[in-house]
Amino acid sequence: MSPFLSDLIPDILCRFPVKTLLRFKCVAKTWRSLIDDPHFTKLHLQHSLRNGTNVKLFLDNCIECDDKAYAVDFDSLDNLVRFPRPFVAEITKYRSRIIGSCNGLLAVYHRESGIALWNPSTGKCRYLPPLDDDIANDHDALPGHHYDKNTVLGFGYDEISNDYKVVKMLRSKTQNSFKVMVYSLKADSWKRIDDCPYDFPTNYNDGAYVNNALHWVGDEIDEFHRGQVIFALDLATEKYYDVPEGDRRIKNKECSGVFCCEHFGYMNAGVLGGCLCVSRDYSNCPVRDYIYVWVMKEYGVKESWTKQLYLSRDEWLTNIFHSRAVGYSKNGDKVLIDDGCRQPAWFNLEDETGETLSIAGAPRFVSTVIYVESLVSV
């Protein structure tokens, strides 16, 4: 083979989906070595992220005990695949859930069995070591809750150190604070960092990964204001910082032009189209319960907060106060909304109508997350 053709092979192969590349490893030893090479893994991932290819919608059965997980192509919602879950679901046991997605890896949390990093495309999985007894035994756990505000989680990729990190915050029994542990995939170990400087009034979602940091909604310790602060943990420095907020004076279109509900709370932080987003809760509105979803178009710039969509309890299809924005449709005219326990729904940005998501062969009630197929190793 000429050197010219040899140089083209990586550029050609990086355009194929993971399933095909895994089959190509049987072609020759040189191809196996190439596909297993970390540099090719990075090239393949960069091509997928740059071109929006190999994007999947993960469907997690949130009602029935199910040993299978499901995924479809996000653009077409076709080509349903099934694969075994990292943790077995039992009727009498807690179910697992996805706490984050990054570069093809999913972080899976099981209340009793722990946390796993899982690449559903390759089938590889790594189970994280348990926390030290002194940390675990001081945890003020709330048994029986799917989302427990005394256990706060997040998963992301530290671009500075080229390391995947899991964050686990545990409310202390003995101190009025959250002890914070960070797991490093490179070191395969946990370490404790500074306690979280905020409390969590609600915990309907896990940390939102944007700009090399995980984001949550919180309140000052010993204060309960239904979520007044958007804050982040930088995965490189492992330090906390506040995110600038947008204008609090929001005109409710159903309140005759009166500025009402200025004392709103943030329900959760999320990611929409690669940007940080937050849900603003106006359940104390005298006219109607509703939320707005705002998107920070330019990270860190207060003036870039943009109202993206409006959901009313009376009109919407799911539980709006547990809702989170999952992603834009291929044409950008709709947003997939998920409340974590019922049917996800498409929100039409133009006429503010909704349509429930239905995928043949998949469970009816699912929690969803977007991920990109990759060869990233755990």
Automatic annotation (TrEMBL):
It comes from the Eukaryota. Residues 7-42 form the F-box domain. This is Pyridoxal phosphate phosphatase-related protein. InterPro entries: F-box-assoc_dom_typ1, F-box-assoc_interact_dom, F-box-like_dom_sf, F-box_dom, Gal_Oxase/kelch_b-propeller, SCF_F-box_component. Residues 73-367 form the F-box associated beta-propeller type domain.
